[in-house]
Write a structure and sequence with these properties.
The structure is a homodimer. The first copy, chain A, is an alpha/beta fold. Chain A folds into three domains: 2-118, no CATH class; 149-402, Aspartate Aminotransferase, domain 2; 412-534, Aspartate Aminotransferase, domain 1, CATH 3.90.1150. In chain A, 39% of the residues lie in helices and 12% in strands. Chain A contains 17 helices and twelve strands. The first copy, chain A, has a seven-stranded mixed β-sheet, sandwiched between helices. In chain A, strands 1-11-12-10-9 form a five-stranded mixed β-sheet. In chain A, strand 11 and strand 12 (505-511) form a beta hairpin. The longest helix of chain A is centred in the C-terminal third of the chain and has 34 residues, at 404-437. The termini of chain A are far apart. At the A-B interface, helix 3, helix 4, helix 5, helix 6 and helix 7 of A face helix 3, helix 4, helix 5, helix 6 and helix 7 of B.
């Protein structure tokens, strides 16, 4: 500590201050915050300031965690962009040439959390991903500390094996036998997972496209329902198929695709007139849990068509895949084992911290074949260990973040049964909400019948609109209700829930539950809040 | 605490145990580890066990951080995959149906770190990304705790603004005036950044491909040097151009592309014979810092060609972009301001924790145009704030991890000058290594002259090979030297450095420095270690 003690107001010596848990009071009061980041490790004598700084950060984070679960804390403290940009009482987002003190860095950390949104709060219902799982959080902290990359066993031995074992369990859940004909691969984000599925399908049927480009294939067509995630169309645009070659199938009132229509299209294309505008059907996406309604496409019926016409079947279970963990609800994905590939995001329904998304492909070797470029500088064949554990060449990414550890650790801590309980509980809460409002005055449900997932979609009709006759004026006024209520919710910071229009339906609320902190009282609170804020609209 | 106290061996009451920093000794000895994850928040009375658990995790992590910087600690404790899979003394990677105790979870955390690789160790030279920045680490911990998503201002207000301001600084470094004609966008991984550049270039010149697919464009060709990152070819394969339409330009001995050859090809294609096999040149990638040699393509010369023929110029500065922060070294990227897009990975040369990568595009609006799908459920136009801050529709991803905070926080803490010092120091250390071995007995340099980046590439020639005449036998034996030394290094755990063959060159070591903990003594150690292990080969 000799260097440090020469500074004015430096810390007491380590003899009388055991800095590790906690800095004692005199030490905290000492002016060690004259220190800057250059005094931290690897600086000479940097160990004590480093430990002290990290403990201060930890104190900020644990306080945040505690408050996140405290219902008397606001979900957010809303400010407009210009307000935050102008600077809030000592919170200046601008970067400068000169370093700032560690004291200021800690203030910045506090303020960053203060003006953010508590996505783990029991009254945050805004996204499919919500909640703050403590084990998952610990897993993320450890992952950051290990700071490594998934591309080789060489630098991520434990994580690579954890990934392999976790994906094996996921494949078992899907119903793919645990044989050598299976391979799978995780990456960040359901949209990229879906993009992989399209690439792999193209490689399976037209491997020459990898070398020669799209001109080596006929005009390939992808099918998906009009309510599927937009990433399928985005993948079509990005990968060179073109948006207009992504055919959006009509759906019934509950967002499920009209199979008869689909079948008819396919028959038309593949039956009598293969050259119908030169189209060649390649790929069908079935959604297990649509984003807005939470609807499940009938996988078995779609699989029948795919098998009949030799098409790639992808199941986008980004949102609904989690239901595979529940004996009560997994039937909604019946037929998933017949898919060629599956997207499944543990960071949505299973409460794993962002991000954690998997693409699972049934046929072994095809991801490798599709994406490998054999970069010799990274994937040397003459390493001393079994290099089949080097997975980087299967990805379109080069580096790949360690997204597995938090998930593996949560699975260890909860067991499969813990995930099942979580999922069953979230669906029960949604059922509670559905039953509460389906006949309540001032509410209209957006689709008929009980939701298949936790998505409950509804209009709140303020008293002033309840007696209005149907028509354009009512529609226009109703369209403005959800945005107005949402804006007031955000201003008051009490709760957050999503809304959107869809097709010819004006703005409606989409309520989802994936946060394990939510109770019935929070559902009641949301409804009370909507009525409080919307009563005078 | 009432529930908890009914358990056998439960914790003392909170009156006599201030659980926050630290759990007192009796409390640590209490058998609270009979607890499982279901006793943590949001469980009733879960706050104290949660805080205690997180402090235990923190203790594990801070110990790991301390040891990472301690040179008496090994870089790794190597085990083969089958050894780890069989289970190491209580470390069982298999997942089960039933939950495990928190005690076991903490053991798993310790073991995960124990059998991993210390990428922050001063003697880890294996990858372009290395080091453990304490401020960056704190930033990652906070990011995990905030657990949100970048796609809208609504749920990530502070992070969205930090990203905007940080990218503005990066654009200033590139030399793009800070006007409204600029836009930029960060994402994970240089390979994906490069893929974006190809997509955006295609959209700029052939926007109809988005809708109609690749058949709406002529046969498009991408140019890059044979030593550029393989992600350019991978992007060509994935996006439907085809690998054979990615033309790899020859390079000189220092990995810089032979511009005259390139110019000739382009002239041939664009000059007299536009329809040369129907090719249409679209895109040229100039690498600023190749992966193996660290070579910088001459951007100005390439830009001249691109301007002449109206081609998109991308600069892949994933590895070399950091040098823009250094007044001494930024001249190596002269001309970068003439690029249409730039990849720059702060997680490489700037020491930001994994992952943090940016794609910067000069023309405003083009990323949005290229990727937007206008998903109404996410990007509602009728929000109460300025929705131009909702950036999700510019990405091919839907969800996007918060990679900005750690970088922003490091910039705050170090200032621009701190990054400059870091980069200058790493380059000085490489110069030290180069000067140390360039004339040393038993070493041969792979390329002539001083390295442009921190990459020093060399063969170590064991005494037994020094007198062998050039020829196949010597080549074969030399090819095995680096893998053997590397394997022994890993078995002994003392240091790690990369090797690879390239072209007709047999395996050689590639030494890189990006870790701020490295000193000259560590460079000396590496050389001593290579000689110790390689002496008898």
């Amino acid at each position: 500590m000799s260097d440090i003690q020469h500074r004015p107001g430096a810390m007491p010596s380590s003899d009388n201050c055991p800095l590790f848990h906690p800095p004692c009071a005199p030490c905290k009061n000492a002016e060690y915050f004259f220190f800057s980041s250059s005094d931290l490790l690897p600086a000479k004598n940097g160990e004590e300031p480093t430990m002290q700084f990290l403990l201060e950060v930890m104190d900020i984070l644990t306080n945040y965690v505690r408050k996140t679960f405290d219902r008397s804390t606001k979900v957010l403290d809303f400010h407009h962009p210009h307000q935050l940009l102008e600077g809030m009482e000592g919170f200046n987002l601008e970067l400068s040439d000169q370093p700032e003190s560690l004291e200021q860095i800690l203030v910045d950390c506090r303020d960053t959390l203060k003006y953010g949104v508590r996505t783990g709060h029991p009254r945050f219902f805004n996204q499919l991903s919500s909640g703050l799982d403590i084990i998952g959080l610990a897993g993320e902290w450890l992952t950051s500390t290990a700071n490594t990359n998934m591309f080789t066993y060489e630098i991520a031995p434990v994580f690579v094996l954890m990934e392999q074992l976790t994906l094996k369990k996921m494949r078992e859940m899907i119903g793919w036998p645990n044989g050598e004909e299976l391979i799978s691969f995780p990456l960040t984000g359901g949209a990229i997972s879906n993009m992989y599925s399209v690439m792999v399908a193209r490689y399976k049927y037209f491997p020459e496209v990898k070398t020669k480009g799209m001109s080596a294939a006929p005009r390939l067509v992808l099918f998906t329902s009009e309510h599927s995630h937009y990433s399928i169309t985005k993948a079509g645009a990005a990968l060179g198929f073109g948006k207009e070659n992504v055919i959006l199938l009509s759906t019934d009132e509950s967002e499920r695709p009209l199979i008869c229509f689909m079948d008819a299209v396919l028959l038309m294309v593949l039956g009598g007139c293969v050259s119908w505008q030169g189209y060649h059907p390649l790929f069908v996406n079935a959604t297990a849990g649509t984003t807005v309604y939470g609807a499940f496409d009938p996988i078995n019926e779609i699989a029948d068509i795919c098998e009949k016409y030799n098409l790639w079947l992808h199941v986008d279970g980004a949102w609904g895949g989690g239901l595979l963990m529940s004996r009560q609800h997994r039937h909604k994905l019946n037929g998933v084992e017949r898919a060629n590939s599956v997207t499944w995001n543990p960071h949505k329904m299973m409460g794993v911290p962002l991000q954690c998304s998997a693409i699972l492909v049934r046929e072994k070797g095809i991801l490798q074949g599709c994406n490998s470029m054999c970069a010799g500088y990274l994937f040397q064949p003459d390493k001393q260990y079994d290099v089949t554990y080097d997975t980087g060449d299967k990805a379109i990414q080069c580096g790949r973040h360690v997204d597995i550890f938090k998930f593996w650790l949560m699975w260890k801590a909860k067991g499969t049964t813990g995930f099942e309980e979580h999922i069953d509980r979230c669906l029960e809460l949604s059922e509670y909400l559905y039953n509460k409002i389906k006949d309540r005055e001032g509410y209209e449900m957006v689709f008929e019948g009980q939701p298949q997932h936790t998505n409950v979609c509804f209009w709140y009709i303020p008293p002033g609109l309840r007696d209005m006759p149907p028509g354009d004026e009512r529609r226009e006024r109703l369209h403005k209700v959800a945005p107005k209520i949402k804006a007031m919710m955000m201003e008051s910071g009490t709760t957050m829930v999503g809304y959107q229009p869809q097709g010819n339906k004006v703005n409606f609320f989409r309520m989802v539950v994936s946060n394990h902190a939510v109770t019935r009282s929070d559902i009641d609170f949301l409804i009370d809040e909507i009525e409080r804020l919307g009563n005078d609209l």
